[in-house]
Amino acid sequence: MFSLLQHKYSNFSTKMNNISVVIITLNEELTIARCIKSVIPIADEIIVVDSFSQDRTKEICLTLGVQFIEHSFEGYIEQQAYATSLANFEYILTIDADEAIDEMLCNSILEAKKKLDHEGYSMNRMNNYCGQWIRHGSWYPDRKIRLWNRNMGHWGGRNPHNTVMMDQGSKIGYLKGELLHYCYDSIEAHVQQFNRFTSISAYELFSEKRKIGIFGIFIKSMANFIQGFFFKLGFLDGYYGIIICYINSFATFMKYVKLRELNKNGKL
């Protein structure tokens, strides 16, 4: 059995040098243990906010000794903001249930904890696609701010793609290592998620009264493919790299087609 009880608050005595790890979940029994175990060496508390999972997510989390809170899902940005509000410390490490930190990133965070002299810290995220690590294209280095002072930033972006938005003038450091993202174990899973995500994105754009013409849809789709495949060398990842470039381009196409349908009919 894994437990945080002996670890919690043991490494650092001052509040500024403590880190709250925050995770939101929904039916993550296949990935959540790996995620939690990877952050235990750097965490002073781990908070999991769950959207009433129907699998073993809750059981696994409680076995690992984290704080487990159930809260209805209102949107990715809203759920992350709620989870962050529960943290006891100023510095937050935000990690998804299908992610884990590698050893180098773990050591980088431990080193940063000694001072925490930046308001935010960015890190590379590397995606595992159908068992292959993707090292080129629009998915790498996929740099993100995930360790941050919650008093100097907030959750923003556009659902379903939430992001940490730091206040103007914030100092941003960089942490070596990889945030490992086990994103899709099959092409079918990728297609299913992009269909769901493009619908969410289209509704968000529709609520902002955004419009687009047929020509604009094709331009944005082709630009997405060209950028990922040629400029960011997505083809160097071989077969799956090419598949990713194509699906990303088609997802862009579908997002704006769905937006156009909403503008025409008020529904998809």
Walk me through this protein's architecture:
This protein is an alpha/beta fold and 268 residues long. Strands 1, 2, 3, 4, 5, 6, 7, 8 and 11 form a nine-stranded mixed beta sheet that branches. Strands 9-10 form a two-stranded antiparallel sheet. The model is unreliable at 1-16 (pLDDT under 50). It is built from seven helices and eleven strands. The longest helix has 28 residues, at 238-265. The chain is globular and about 50 Å long. Helix 6 runs antiparallel to helix 7 (238-265).
Query: What overall geometry do the principal axes of the alpha carbons give?
Result: globular
Please compute the radius of gyration using only Cα atoms: 19 Å
SSE string:
EHEHEHEEHEEEEEEHHH
Strand content: 25-35%
Number of helices: 7
Q: What would the average pLDDT be, to the nearest integer?
A: 94
Main β-sheet: number of strands, strand sense, barrel status? 9 strands, mixed
Pick out the low-confidence regions.
1-16
Instruction: State the helicity in percent bands.
Output: 25-40%
- How would you classify the helix and strand content by structural class? alpha/beta
User: Would you count the extended β strands for me?
Assistant: 11
End-to-end Cα distance, whole Å, is 48 Å
